[in-house]
Amino acid sequence: MPMAERDNHSRHQPTRVADIPRFDTIIDARSPSEFALDHIPGAINCPVLDDEERRIVGTIYKQTGAFEARRVGGAMVAANLARHLRERFGEQPPHWRPLVYCWRGGLRSGSMVTWLRLVGWDAQQLAGGYKSYRHHVLAQIEAAVPQLQLRVICGATGSAKTRVLQALAARGEQVIDLEHFASHKGSLLGALPGVPQPSQKQFETRIATCFEALDLSRTVYVEGESARIGRLSLPIPLVARMRAAPCVEVQADAAARLDYLLRDYAYLGDDRQALADQLGRLKELQGKAVVQRWQEWALEGALAPLFAELMALHYDPHYERSQARHFEQWPQRRQVAAPDLSDAGIEAVADAILRLP
């Protein structure tokens, strides 16, 4: 086979997920809403049809048929591609190598690749599109979880477990920060102000991406979470692996934990009505009179007595019972004292954990 023909042949071989790092830019040709739901990490969104255009084309397809839908849609695609060529790709050099994907590696990414190749760029289409990447994410989680050398950081509410994880990461240790991936602190009041949780698919993509960077022969630290963080579900194999892993309990007294919670959740006082509404969900568990008192404190911005009673009446009574029920090695847990949950105290806890056998 002549050299030029071999180069052209290899250039147009199907591109797989494993080939993604070889490309300069990853282009998601799907609509903005599809991109927001989940996408390949690092991808840029250059839709060939936006959400409204997709709706219009879909309606025409149902009412008139495929030909008219393609005629109208083709004009929209051409206009969008022209705009991307001017605005998004206009400064790219001749040797630029973009990888383009859509939902299943079909018409949307194919049309963009065709035009990019006509310009002269070595554009490729991801075989199977986003669906192939989604299969990769699930396979990555399934393959990595059984190999994780987990050590689970536990502790009563307010023990600064997430901050301890961050301190371990700063020391070069491997951590899986599930609450960061979920954009949620994991408790009833754990929603972050102005930060929506990702979709379930995006949550799993973040976990799989983290796994890809791990050295599976080394210890990995993770916080002892329930099976759900906010509205998101942890992958079932990961939950099982966490439940079977050794535990380290951060032990802090109620005063230290209350002081930490008042700092860490201070923003809850900014929207007092929203806080009171959230507390209303506890009426069945705690009784109307107790929750009404908590709601009054919330509306007054009296977080100190509110958090003190939430710990004493809601979180702490369920803590040890739930830990013993969920973590198989709870009776053999290692304990690290945390008399002080200031920044320096949290650093000391991280150091103490690293000194454990």
Order of strands, widest sheet = 6-7-5-10-11
| Overall pLDDT | 94
- Indicate the percent of residues in helices: 40-55%
Show unreliable segments: 1-10
Strand content: 5-15%
Going by CATH, the homologous superfamily of the largest domain would be: P-loop containing nucleotide triphosphate hydrolases
Helix count from the secondary structure assignment: 16
Number of domains: 2
| Main β sheet profile | 5 strands, parallel
Q: Which series of helices and strands comes N to C?
A: HEHEHHEHEHEHEHHEEEHEHHHHHEH
CATH topology annotation of the largest domain:
Rossmann fold
From the alpha carbons, calculate the radius of gyration and give it in angstroms: 26 Å
Which word captures the global form?
globular
How far is it from the N-terminal to the C-terminal residue, by CA?
61 Å
**Count of individual beta strands:** 11
CATH class category name of the largest domain = Alpha Beta
* Content-based structural category: alpha/beta
CATH architecture of the largest domain: 3-Layer(aba) Sandwich
Write structural notes for this entry.
The longest helix has 24 residues, at 303-326. The chain has 2 domains: 3-135, Oxidized Rhodanese, domain 1, CATH 3.40.250; 149-355, Rossmann fold. The chain is globular, with a radius of gyration of 26 Å. Residues 1-10 have low confidence and may be disordered. Helix 3 (51-63) runs antiparallel to helix 4 and helix 7 (161-170) crosses helix 16 (343-355). It has 16 helices and 11 strands. With 357 residues, the chain is an alpha/beta fold. It is 53% helix and 11% strand. The protein has a 5-stranded parallel beta sheet, with helices on both faces.
